[in-house]
Specification:
- With 79 residues, this protein is mainly alpha-helical.
- It is 39% helix and 0% strand.
- It has two helices and no strands.
């Protein structure tokens, strides 16, 4: 009954034959399986949660420069 226009739908279930009800139930099961497969595929396409960003260790201005020059960071690589 889901796939039929409203004008064709009977007003009571007594007006429907048992065969018609079985056919409609089969259509509904088929539609439910299609919808389930569609949304299951949508769920698996979601990107995984990303890891939090870890800030690099900050070098102080008066610490030795990591480049190995022996100078203070502010005198070597800061500018």
């Amino acid at each position: 009954m889901i796939s039929e226009p409203l004008e064709k739908m009977p007003t009571s279930l007594e007006a429907l034959s048992n065969e018609h009800l079985q056919e409609q139930a089969t259509k509904a099961r088929f539609a439910a399986r299609i919808l389930h497969a569609h949304f299951l595929a949508q769920r698996s396409e979601r990107p995984a949660r990303s890891q939090p960003v870890v800030a690099p260790i900050k070098i102080g201005r008066n610490e030795p420069c990591p480049c190995g020059s022996g100078k203070k960071y502010k005198q070597c690589c800061l500018h």
